[in-house]
Design brief:
The complex is a heterodimer of chains A (823) and B (58). With 823 residues, chain A is of the alpha+beta class. Classes of the chains: A alpha+beta (823), B mainly alpha (58).
Chain lengths: 823, 58
């Protein structure tokens, strides 16, 4: 319509402070990416691809919608071809058949960050013919796509989304998901109905209270009472049913639960009110009863919503790991879902990828990072014929693997079974509020009995009246709201700080110090080999770097990475001995770089006959738990590098803080005991709690053992930690963890490093403080109310005021506090 | 004042009607996603311009 609008909708590169900005994401364009002749500049290849795809589809309006205030982020596009999505086994697991030959699936899409993204994703039918509809749920990043069967394939749809900058990931749409959706809707209906009833009954109660002061015709009084009774019966038997069900379950299992005193109060209120309505005497309590049902449901729903949000975020994280494998079919490579792999299949694994199933290497050899499976920080070489496990990561070269075990039979699958077993067996934690409620019920029943007896002797006519008044005012409305509200507020705040908490009881358990066990590789340390020390001259280092640059070995790359700024030399005649080292010529000198034994094999004088200086240097490297690499020039030892997995920057300060808070600290690691010892010494941890060389089963046994005497919190990231995470009272998975550890943990820290751990502990203590304050407040209201009722002094108006005021106090106390606020 | 006998049931009836509407809407999934619809409302109008956009350019 308007030519100016059209022009504006073209993506543009702007110039800010002499730097061009990316036409797609508005980030500054690096000098290397600048193209002199082009009007549009892009910060990366991803942004270029995405911008071209958007413009080619006539969707440039996207740039008009884009909110420039939003934090810019470069486009994500993977360029994958998603062939595995056309596989029959994929369709079986993820595609639903709708009416009129339409198919439907749900993707989790990465890269959604603003309203314009919603628009772009929902324009999918315009980009891919055959797609009927795409709907994006912005909050959960879920895109539901419906398409015409036979017109277009799922892989093509996925490719289109990817090119637009939203890499899609399959989400399991099982019956669980549907069940959850229905539960959510039912809860909302219950809250809504309970709210509507409470509001209407409250209005009628106003009329009744007015009549109490100024007089009222008996006919009206009876009408209001009968109407309130009808609504109250509806409220208690429909939305309020959940409390009676909970109380019944608690009684049957002989446990205590907050639902028991609630059901008692609700029942007494409803029956007492009904009796008085029928007989036309005394007071009715329907306003209190219905308000109670409503407020309690609100508290419960809020807490469950927050927990579900955290749970969703975790599920989505595990959906991000691609579950595909490249299967060799004859000479052809085909991407298939991992679930479709069968024993005997040949799969290709490239550098940087994880092995899809347990198998034996058929071709090639490579360094494998076993850290997630075993905790070892140093990658190991696997050759033809060696077994490689699913979940280990290829760090250097392409290999072809023959599958010998798949799915649940793999090592990871077995560990996952352990996780499930222990998650099921874990004893439920009894919350303070629930423990309190046991005493509470006993005290209330006792008082009610005494009250009935006392008033029965004084004036039998008033006995029922006062006893029912006592039971109602004692009903722990605020008490029952105290915990869920504080917990809901805390979980929400924690999620904003990148701490995902799956259950409310975790906060209470973390507030009291116990034994804190940490995994080493990837948790305390960065999980990557780095050059930790270098001894020798700069020339030797430059020459060694020239040689190392020709190798794909993990240590070689770490050496080169640490030498990025130095002068670059050329190396000739390079030969690599797998598992040993490199030999070659630099500046005319013969150079050897490798393990001390490799040098010895090539005739270089080595310890113990080595002269003093290098001998003690080598000792020092080994004592620090590092891996040594020696350099010899013309047959003479003249350089030594030590490689280690360095500690995270914040490990020391976080652990010091936790120790000051009274936590006992320990390390459980699958890495070599010597390495663990050195890390423990660096961090100042007591040796008796630090154990190396532990298998996943050892870790599990250790946690089980320690759990008998004290509460145990386990922190880890790997598959090897998963069973221990599930068995511990609280399991915390850290950033970058394996999928199995996400599933097993109660808490996930989305930001790297341990500072999230400190925030978690501080937040838990803060939350428990709020819970305690709420409990004290609500108990105080109850004590006052019960005493007044017992004395027969409790005016129905006073009871009506006391009830909502106590709840409001708790609500405001919960939301005003910010236990997870950064300090 | 006898009007009250009529008004109260009437009011409750209207209330029940709204509750029924709420229950129906919830069961239909109207409250499943509370964020995205608010965003969609933003670009409903602009789509008209957008459809015309590429043609004007050519």
């Amino acid at each position: 319509m308007n030519p100016i609008t059209t022009e504006l909708s073209e993506p543009r590169s702007k110039t800010v402070d002499g730097h061009a900005t990316c036409a797609h994401c508005q980030l500054p364009v690096p000098a290397a990416m600048m193209r002199e002749d082009a009007g549009q500049q892009f910060c990366c290849a991803g942004c270029r691809t995405v911008a071209e795809a958007i413009q080619a589809s006539g969707l440039s309006w996207y740039y008009q919608l884009l909110d420039q205030e939003e934090t810019a982020q470069p486009a994500r596009t993977t360029g994958r071809d998603y062939a595995e999505m056309d596989d029959a086994s994929f369709a079986e697991a993820h595609v639903r058949t709708g009416s009129r030959g339409e198919l439907e699936t749900v993707f989790y899409v990465e890269g959604v960050h603003c309203a314009a993204c919603v628009w772009l994703v929902e324009k999918l039918p315009q980009v891919v013919p055959g797609v009927r509809e795409a709907r994006l749920d912005y909050g959960r990043r879920l895109a539901t796509v419906r398409w015409q069967d036979g017109v277009v394939g799922l892989a093509q749809i996925a490719r289109a989304l990817d090119r637009l900058g939203y890499p899609p990931h399959p989400v399991c749409q099982g019956s669980e998901q549907l069940l959850r959706r229905d539960t959510e809707r039912r809860q909302l209906i219950h809250v809504g109905v309970a709210g509507a009833i409470a509001g209407n009954v409250m209005l009628m109660a106003f009329a009744l209270y007015g009549g109490w002061f100024h007089g009222m015709e008996d006919g009206f009084r009876a009408m209001f009472r009968w109407a309130s009774l009808g609504l109250a019966v509806l409220a208690v038997t429909w939305p309020g049913r959940v409390f009676f069900r909970g109380a019944w379950a608690a009684l049957r299992t002989r446990t205590v639960h907050m639902d028991v005193p609630i059901a008692l109060g609700l029942g007494a209120g409803l029956l007492g009110g009904a009796w008085n309505t029928v007989t036309g005497g005394g007071e009715v309590y329907f306003d209190s009863v219905t308000a109670l049902v409503f407020l309690l449901l609100v508290g419960r729903t809020l807490q469950e919503r927050q927990q579900r949000k955290a749970f969703d975020a975790l599920t989505m994280l595990s959906a991000l790991t691609p579950r595909i494998a490249r299967r060799l079919e004859g000479d052809q490579l085909r991407e298939v879902p991992q679930a479709a792999l069968r024993v005997g299949d040949r799969v290709e694994v490239r550098a940087g990828e994880s092995v899809p199933a347990d198998g034996r290497i058929l071709e090639g050899s490579a360094e494998f990072d076993l850290a997630l499976l075993t905790g070892e920080s140093m990658p190991e070489r696997r050759k033809v014929g060696d077994l490689v496990h699913a979940g280990t990561v290829d760090r250097s070269d392409r290999v072809v693997v023959a599958v010998v075990r798949t799915g649940a039979d793999t090592r990871v699958g077995q560990l996952m079974r352990l996780v499930e077993e222990h998650a099921r067996r874990r004893a439920p934690f009894v919350r303070t509020a629930d423990r309190l409620s046991g005493w509470f019920v006993a005290a209330v029943l006792l008082l009610a009995g005494v009250c009935a007896l006392y008033w029965g002797m004084q004036s039998p006519a008033m006995a029922l009246e006062h006893t029912v008044a006592l039971l109602i005012v004692a009903c722990p409305c605020a008490l029952a709201l105290a915990t869920p509200l504080a917990v809901a507020a805390a979980i929400g705040q924690a999620a904003r700080r990148g701490i995902l908490i799956k259950g409310g009881e975790v906060l209470e358990q973390l507030a009291k110090p116990g034994l804190l066990l940490l995994d080493k590789t990837g948790t305390l340390t960065q999980g990557e080999m780095q050059l930790s020390r270098w001894q020798g001259s700069a020339e030797v280092r430059a020459a060694a770097a020239a040689l190392e640059r020709r190798s794909s070995h993990v240590l070689a790359r770490a050496f080169v990475a640490a030498y990025a700024d130095g002068p670059q030399l050329a190396a000739d005649d390079v030969r690599e001995t797998v598992g040993g080292g490199l030999a070659g010529k630099v500046r005319g000198q013969r150079l050897l770089v490798g393990s001390p034994s490799y040098l010895r094999d090539h005739g270089v004088a080595c310890s113990p006959d080595l002269d003093g200086a290098w001998g003690s240097a080598l000792e020092a490297v080994l004592a620090a738990g590092q891996t040594p690499v020696a350099v010899a020039v013309d047959g003479e030892w003249c350089g030594l590098a030590g490689f280690g997995d360095p500690l995270r920057e914040d490990s020391q300060s976080v652990l010091d803080q936790l120790r000051a808070d009274g936590w006992q600290l320990g390390i459980l690691s699958g890495d070599h005991p010597r390495v663990v010892e050195s890390v423990a010494k660096q961090l100042g941890l007591p040796a008796q709690h630090c154990h190396g060389g532990m298998s996943p089963e050892d870790k599990l046994a250790f946690v089980e053992q320690a759990k008998r005497s004290q509460s145990v919190v386990m922190v880890g990231d790997g598959v090897n930690d998963a069973a221990a995470l599930a068995a511990a009272q609280v399991g915390v998975a850290v950033h970058g963890g394996a999928e199995a550890s996400l599933a097993a943990a109660d808490v996930y820290l989305t930001e790297p490093g341990l500072s999230g751990l400190r925030a978690l502990f501080q937040g838990s203590r803060g939350t428990l403080k709020v819970v305690r304050r709420n409990l004290v407040l609500s108990l105080a209201y109850n004590v006052v109310g019960v005493s007044l009722a017992f004395a027969g002094l409790l005016h129905p108006v006073a009871a009506a005021i006391l009830m909502p005021v106590s709840s409001l106090t708790v609500v405001s106390s919960s939301y005003r506090s910010q236990p997870f606020r950064p300090r | 004042m006898n009007l009250l006998y009529l008004i109260l049931p009437l009011a409750l009836g209207i209330g029940a009607g709204f509750v029924a509407a709420f229950v129906w809407a919830t069961r239909k999934g109207q409250f499943d996603d509370l964020e995205t619809p608010a965003m969609r409302a933003l670009f409903d109008d602009s789509e008209v311009d957008q459809e015309a956009g590429p043609e004007t350019r050519e």
